[in-house]
Amino acid sequence: MSERIIIVEDDQGVRFFLEEALKGEGYRVDSFESYEDASKSISNSTDLLIMDISLPGLDGLSATTEIKNKFDVPILIITAYGTKKNALEAIKRGATDFFVKPILLDELKVMLKRVLGTRRLKKEVEELREKELENHIFHGVVGKSPQMKEIFKEVEKIAGKGLSVLITGETGVGKEEIAKLVHLLSKRKGEFIVVNCASIPDNLLESELFGYEKGAFTGAVQQKAGKFEVAHRGTIVLDEIGEMSPYLQAKLLRVVEKQEIEHLGSTKTKKVDIHVISTTNRVLENEIREGKFREDLFFRLSQIHIQIPPLRERRADVTVLVDYVLRNIEQETGRVVMISDDAMGLLMDYSWPGNARELIGIIRRASVMCDGDVIGLDDLPLHFRAEHPLSGSVYSDQSLDDAISVLEKNMIVDALKKVQGSQARAAKILGISERSMWYRVKKYEIET
Ligand SMILES: Nc1ncnc2c1ncn2[C@@H]1O[C@H](COP(=O)(O)OP(=O)(O)OP(=O)(O)O)[C@@H](O)[C@H]1O
Ligand SMILES: [Mg+2]
Predict the structure, then answer these.
(1) Which among 425, 418, 423, 421 is positioned nearest to 438, based on CA atoms?
(2) What is the pLDDT of residues 147-199, one digit of tens each?
(3) Residues near ligand 1 with C-beta < 6 Å?
């Protein structure tokens, strides 16, 4: 299929000349007198736009900005002799190149070959990347690292076998994502219900899970089904199970063993078919040792235990996650955003205390921040760059004391995140005393 070129030029003579010349070269050509006329025809499948800089209506410069915001189309600017400054401005706004009237056919041909050749290559690279990405997405979950591939395999093997699943890992590693995957592959007909055990007080959680009869407590104006019933023949995810009170732990144990529940305010038992997945970022074995979590419940809930390693221990997933987010942005907005090698290098080295959730947030933010269509070092947040030992430039305009303070604060914040805010454990990681940790937390006003 020959390439598709759009010409926007108000000078009839130049327009005819270009159209004939390009058609003669075998391209498919459409030409228009103004950007307004052309705009409906421009899309990502346009291979090249040749546009005069001075046009009736929206001028070529503003049109360049508008097109570049929406589409990934190379633009060649035509300018009159003596207005080179404008042409340079157009390039700043994303045009690929320019040529000066009068147009020399040979010069034009060479330029077309170069621009279209680059575009073809870029498309090929994109297609390859897309294929590569597809290879590493398993039912919507991204994973290229051996650890994630292993998890996918395990989920495939266990799904639908009726075993309870415990999923553990740091915040943002994708515990809920994997829980969804287990449900999806289990082909259970019922709903996928997530209940957060940390965000609501005990008595509310109890009524939420078990349901109640009218008049069971003040405010129970009518009967209500509990989440266990709603998840009948489906999956219930008990999120942050480590936060559940001893009282509810005991009640839960009964539910999973007997597969039956009672509404609050009723003694009538009801049979339910539930599949329980629990998630936590705590180490439940420690909670058991400290007497905070029932061991019998732990065994009952963890017939299968899936541990998702933190992102920093499976760096192969960083690149595919980035590609995945960039592809989603393209699908949502039509904008093609890429990332520079420098920026990617920094991402690969970063410690990712917030794991995949943090990565997704950072890429989305950077894609909004970046001026052109490439995310560079400058588009990454400062604290992020500061962590990098080689990014001296971040500090270069500060005094030594200020720079050290920034570094110190960032390291403390990251360490605290890793250990869910425990100052004692963070102090250990950083090799300082608890006292000096406490002092610094105060000094930098760090919220714990
Ligand atoms: N492997 C992955 N592929 C695609 N998206 C992912 C992946 N891992 C995490 N995410 C995304 O990152 C975000 C956080 O994931 P999720 O909610 O599953 O984490 P979590 O481990 O449950 O975190 P928390 O402990 O804070 O509840 C979500 O938007 C999720 O879609
Ligand atoms: Mg979660």
Answers:
(1) 423
(2) 999 999 999 999 989 999 999 999 999 999 999 999 999 999 999 999 999 98
(3) 141-143, 169, 171-177, 281, 356-357, 360
